[in-house]
Amino acid sequence: MPGRTLVACLGNIFLGDDGFGVEVARRLAREDLPEGTRVTDYGIRGMHLAYDLAEGWDATILVDAAPRGGKPGTVYVIEPEREQPADGGGTSLSLTESMLFDPHGMQPDVMLGMTGMLGAEAGRVLVVGCEPVSMEEGIGLSEPVAAAVEEAARMVMDLVRDAPGPAPPGGKPVNSGGFATKE
Questions:
Q1: Which SS3 state, helix, strand or coil, does residue 42 take?
Q2: Residue 5, class by beta-carbon neighbours within 10 Å (0-12 exposed, 13-18 middle, 19+ buried)?
Q3: For the whole model, what pTM was predicted?
């Protein structure tokens, strides 16, 4: 990704596989990041993310659990579609419709919308998400999701090092075997 990139890792460590983004942030802490890249573990601090997004970015990568009905542990790279808001002004991202159910209380599309209200830009938005087994109360990732952390960290590093072409609408799932087509 060119320019300034924010990697926003989200999740609640007290809700099982919802802690996926937090674990990816821990893994990325060991990486030598390209200049202009910031990785932050936001956990469930949606307002903190909204204010950081207000700084303006060329690209934003959200990392989170992403229940899409696939095999647990599947890692997805998704580029949400931009759509016109009901009032007809500007564009907004419909992340919840494209892939995320957010039990944190502040959904990513709301945070991205707040960024626009604050006069800033999140830039190109991608989501690196993992199919969870369970997001019920409990600490620790399930085995398939824990095994996906390394793959997700590699994907994020590939994204921040390279400027990939846009993903198709709704995104495409990726697993350790490479890109796969979602039925």
A1: strand
A2: buried
A3: 0.74
